[in-house]
Amino acid sequence: MKQARLQKIQRVLSLRQPTLTVLLEEVHKPHNLSAILRSCDAVGAMQAHAIVPRGGMPTYNATSGSAEKWVPLHTHKQVIPTIEDLQKQGYQVLATHLSERAVDYREVDYTRPTCILLGAEKWGVSEDAAKAADQNIIIPMMGMVQSLNVSVAAATILFEAQRQRQVAGMYREPQIEPVTLKRLTFEWLYPELAEIYQDRGEAYPELDEEGMIVQVSPQV
Ligand code: SAM
């Protein structure tokens, strides 16, 4: 049982894409937040970012398949410093925003470190954030309705990123450093225990091939 879980965790972590993420600008509906994290998990995005909406962060939706457990969400107060910070880390920030410089989302190279900026359900991406982004992208709309639901837009773009990365062989070899892979394996397999070790500032114990702990600290 533990071994099967270990194998699944190792397989999923070996497909994770640390250079693919999203930034949500005040997305406030729980079902949208949860659905976006679920798509992030499905394509292997390792983490997500969010600007806290005025009314506070939405709770997670119970039907999300607990994606928030596997895709940590980092919250930020202000959008422009967050965009600038991601750009300093080497990410191209793509704002999903209809502007004169917007291009079809399929024209972009998602094999580069990429952050997809998505806007609030009612207002969309702010003008300032769209300007600060490296590129504006749009999913062509050919119907009567002007825009998609934000989680649908996120999934559409994330799966194009997955397609391009698959073609480029980015799911063939682990993209995460071995030390991070080992750390996350322990945290995903033993989440409660991992917290205890973190609180104590102690290193995680080794795992054997079946995912069993080889040596436990005497106090745990
Ligand atoms: N009135 C808003 C506007 O003008 O942007 C509509 C917001 S839309 C319901 C919510 C978010 O979904 C947008 O900010 C964007 O992130 C994403 N989105 C919806 N339709 C899109 C499309 N066709 N192309 C790209 N992103 C889209």
TrEMBL record:
Gene3D superfamilies: 3.40.1280.10
Keyword check for S-adenosyl-L-methionine: yes
Pfam families associated with the record: SpoU_methylas_C, SpoU_methylase
Enzyme Commission number: 2.1.1.34
Catalytic activity: guanosine(18) in tRNA + S-adenosyl-L-methionine = 2'-O-methylguanosine(18) in tRNA + S-adenosyl-L-homocysteine + H(+)
Sequence positions that bind S-adenosyl-L-methionine: 96, 119-123, 139, 148
Domain called RNA methyltransferase SpoU/TrmH type C-terminal: residue spans: 163-214
Record-annotated tRNA/rRNA methyltransferase SpoU type domain positions: 20-158
Record key words, sorted: Methyltransferase, RNA-binding, S-adenosyl-L-methionine, Transferase, tRNA processing, tRNA-binding
InterPro entries: Alpha/beta_knot_MTases (IPR029028), rRNA_MeTrfase_SpoU_C (IPR022724), SpoU_MeTrfase (IPR001537), TrmH (IPR033671), tRNA_m1G_MTases_N (IPR029026)
Superkingdom of this protein's organism: Bacteria
NCBIfam families attached to this UniProt entry: PRK11081.1
Family: Belongs to the class IV-like SAM-binding methyltransferase superfamily. RNA methyltransferase TrmH family.
Function: Catalyzes the 2'-O methylation of guanosine at position 18 in tRNA.
Protein name per its UniProtKB record: tRNA (guanosine(18)-2'-O)-methyltransferase
Record organism: Deinococcus roseus
Gene behind the chain: trmH
